[in-house]
Amino acid sequence: QVQLVESGGGSVQAGGSLRLSCMFSPSELKGMGWFRQAPGKEREGVGCIYSGSGNTYYADSVKGRFTITRDNSKNTVYLQMNSLKPEDTAMYYCATGWWSAGQCLINYQNNYYGQGTQVTVSS
Predict the structure, then answer these.
(1) Which of 12, 28, 72, 109 lies at a C-alpha separation of 20 to 30 Å from 79?
(2) Cα-flanking dihedrals φ and ψ of residue 64, to 5°?
(3) What's the CA gap between 71 and 55, in Å, rounded?
């Protein structure tokens, strides 16, 4: 059973930065990703990184502002979020899944998710 534990959420003013962390055990599946869900909205993929190739993918809404990285020695993946906007406010979830190439931003039913960490951006 994959376990994912997120940390690093909080409240920040627009234009600020936060870094989220996710520790996974015992191992990831095809890659690691970050999803988010705002109240009344569906869960959406934000960014992901494949374990083999290291290829990364981002939602258009965060390209150029968010960066996903990993530290394999620590079984940890990070999401650096810069130039935050109020519309980035959401619960952020770490995820792993059996993703084919380029499919890691899709909210598959068989994805594994952590408990989430709240990010709130005020204007």
Answers:
(1) 109
(2) 85, -15
(3) 14
- pLDDT (tens digit, 9 = 90+) per residue, 71-116? 999 999 999 999 999 999 999 999 999 999 899 999 999 999 999 9
Residues 107, 123: Cα–Cα separation, whole Å? 29
Please check whether residue 45 is in contact with residue 108, taking contact to mean a CB–CB distance below 8 angstroms: no
Nearest 5°: the CA angle 58, 36, 40 is 130
| Cα atoms in the Cβ-side hemisphere of radius 13 Å centred on 120 | 5
pLDDT value at residue 43: 97
Q: Taking all residues of the chain, what is their mean pLDDT, rounded to a whole number?
A: 96
Taking only the tens place, the pLDDT of each residue in 3-55 is 999 999 999 999 999 999 999 999 889 999 999 999 999 999 999 999 989 99
Phi, psi of 115 (to 5 degrees): -80, -20
